[in-house]
Amino acid sequence: MDEADEKFNVLEFAYNATVYAAGMRQEWKDTLVSCLVYNLILILAVLFFRKIAQFSMKRDYFYEIIAAFSFGVCHYTEELMFRAFGYYGMFPMVVINQVIFQKLNRRHGENAMIVAEEFVTGRVGDEDCLAVLSLQFAGALFCSFFFIVTAQDVFLKTKPLGCLFKYTKPLPIVMLCDFLGGLALRVLLELFQGRIISIAVIYAFLFTIGHAAIGVPVAHPVLSVAKAPECWTMVYELLPNLCLHIFSTLSGWLFLPYACQIKTTLRSMWAQKFEKDEVKRIAREKAEKQEQDAKLKKALKAEQQAIDAENRRRNQELRSRNSRRK
Length: 326
Description:
Elements: H1 2-53, H2 59-85, H3 87-105, H4 112-121, H5 126-152, H6 171-192, H7 196-214, H8 221-226, H9 235-259, H10 269-325
Helix pairs in contact: 1-2, 1-3, 2-3, 2-5, 3-7, 4-5, 6-7, 6-9
Keywords: Membrane, Transmembrane, Transmembrane helix
Transmembrane segments: 31-49, 84-101, 129-151, 171-189, 196-218, 238-260
Region (Disordered): 290-326
């Protein structure tokens, strides 16, 4: 009887294990298909909105909100991959998303900390900087609506993800990790600026480490804001935590240029645009000044020629009078 019971238990365990494995395989398949379909929809949406935005006089501002929106929406697929495959699925998903949407957005949607530093140091005009930051955070807040309307209830065979901005460690540890994340990102971007794949790997590394350490990816305030709308039920706890998160991350980013007096070679697209506009303005003023100088020189030359002609005429008249007297 004991042997029969033991054999039955073994068979039951094998059956349950087989059913569980089949269920896991189906879940993995559903997750991969959902992420693929979701990213394709997002890519088409970005291309469509960028096509419309190019007819606007302020197209760069529209590109900025589209870019922030696309980067923010990506975190849903990353969370799905994490829940299905753990960090082994999350890391490559972050790399793929960053590479795809960095190329699609063509430098728009850069990390808000770069723009914030340029605002503090005066490398970008106040109006441009405030507009960029406002549009980025607006795009991040729109992410939740896009996910609910177009993906979660239509294409993705998954349960609602719920609030994704939850700390798993005490607040002092969280602030320290945010500070170190901002500092590390500043150093690494300085070393690998302009290399899309390297930057994507850096973000994947920091997001994965932050998610494992404190429950929230570090070093990107806009993506943190994109996670916030689902947490409306805990708004009184969320808002202070979100403000402290952004403050700690920005403090880590600004530590090197202010505390250590280390100058950066990082330039956002807006800083480069501002510098190009400034160079064009200086060149235009210089050309206008040269044109004015040329006109003035020409006028002085014409005036001198007129004076010389008048002097020659008077000399000629004087010689004519003298010759008649003789």
